Structure formats: C-alpha cells, structure tokens
Amino acid sequence: MIVHIIQLVLGQKYSNNSVSESIPHDLQTIEKHFKLTFLMEHYVCCPTCYSLYDVEVSPVECHFKASCKDALCGTDIFLQSRLKPFPCIKLETKGKFVPLIPRKQGQICLSGQPHLLIPYTSFISQSLHTWIEWLINVPGIENEIDEWASLLSGKRNIIIDVSQANVWKKIFNNDWSPGSLDLGFCLFVDGFNPRGNQISGKQVLMGIIAFNCLNLPPWLRLQQYHTCIAGLIPAPNQPNMLTKNNVLQLLVDELLKLNEGIKIITPKYPHGRKVFFWLVSLIGDIVATHKVSGFMSHSARKFCSWCNINHDEQGKCKSGNLHHVNQVLAS
C-alpha cells in the first residue's frame, strides 16, 4: 500500500524508478536494522520427564533416568502426522543412529518406509548472551545503569533498593579490570493458563522462564521490553521438583559461562568491555520458587527428596560418615 501511494505521488513516469524499488515490501528490513529479532532455539521435549534433545539427533524414546538404578523413561517423544511438516532428523534405535533418506520436506525414510514425525512437545529458549548484548546496546540503557549506581552510592544511610543490601555488596565486591560491568538478575519461573483463568473447562499450564536486570532503575527493570524470556515450558502440565532440573539444565550451563564474563561492544566502550552475569534472587510465589530452588513445598512433610525423614524430625538428624559422590549416586 505504501509503495502504491508513493507511486501515485511521484507520478506515472516515476512509478518504476529506483525510489519505489528500494522501499522494502515487508518488515524484515526494519527488524534487521533495529535488531528486533532474536535467535530462538527449539528442542524436542519429553512430555513426561521434560528432558530436552537436539532436533537433529533426537532419539525416538526418552532416555532419561532419575538415578542409576531407575528404569529409562521410555516415553515416545514423536508423533506421526500427515499435516504438519518437520525438518528431517535422525532416529536412534537400539543405541545406533540409522541414516535417513530425505524424501520431501518433513519426511524421513526408516527401513524403507517414509514417515512424517513431529515432536510431541517442544521447548523454546532464547540465548542469554545474545539478549544481554542487545540490552546493553539499547540507547540510554548504559547511562541509566551508571546513573542509578551513582545515585545509590550517595544514599548510604537510606535503603531504597536491593542493590544496597549487604549480600549484594558481597557478591559484587570484586577486583575486576576497570570498565567491567557487573549485572545482577532476578529469575522468575512460574506456570500460567494460556486459555485464561477459567474455573470450568480443561485446565492447561504453560511455564515461563524470565530474567530482569536489577541494575536498572525500578521504573525500567520490570518493563516488558526489558524482560528476557529465556524459555517457554510446554503445556499441558508442568514438571515437578525433580524433572524441573531437566528444563533448567540448559539455562544453568549458560549461566556458568556468563558468570566468567563476556566481552561486549557498548556505546561507551567501542572496543568492548567485560560484562559479568550474576543470578541474585528468585521472584514468584512460594510454590514456584521452592520448586526451582529445591526447597520443600509449603505443604510438604519430607524436607528431602531422597529420604523419608519428616521436616519436624530435622533436629534428630546426626552427621554420618562421609561418602564418595559415586557411592551417593549408586545408593
């Protein structure tokens, strides 16, 4: 429509000139120049234990084991479909990867028979490294972080923000190189009903994993456009305290790398500065935060997920002999 209006304004003799031809016909150019798109990663997710697998080398059945003595999960993580195409993958059968012959898009050939498979559920995640690099380069964000830190440094007798707490000062009390930046983040993990809060009807739950930067001023840190959606846990159910680790494993691995520091080119430091990522706190209701952190639920009686001692008997516990990690895992 915009191209047609410009052609009418320029006249018929300019209808095919370079001006109208240089105008983009979709939003991809705007998204590219303003960096509005993020790289989303898709993983095959087991609907029972929420184990994650790469799409290209995913097994047919889930191989997760809660412990060495437990049986495999064994849940089928793919569905056959004639309607929804999916990229060609490799299927693992009996511990061996079978080479597949691609036929059409979404089709694979196993034992001479074409199949069309789609994941039962998919886990979608976003790279924290990419998102932090985008956040620091948003115009004005770097100045807001520095100005808020300077303001808090002058209010030592008045506590107005979490970054003035003693725990915060202990975490960020380091001797990094000049120009380095320590960023503290809060983690939010919880489930919601995408169909709304309906009392009647089928109830489904979808999980969200989100981060917010605590270095920003309070009026900016919780804004929607300053929130990192690090992962979406698929519906219709949610993982328990044990299977939640399967979903958080990718996130923990990336956090360990970011904690060592990454070099990012920023408006104030065109040659790059070292940025460190610190997970400071969990936010959310008591059910979700206890599940993520590994603490017992508000209604639980067993304070440990591996023994049968009630939480009111903790005072009777005594320290036993030290065991090697392999002995603990094998028990």
TrEMBL record:
InterPro entries: Transposase_21
Pfam families per UniProt: Transposase_21
Top-rank taxon: Eukaryota
Identification of the protein by name: Uncharacterized protein
Native species: Austropuccinia psidii MF-1
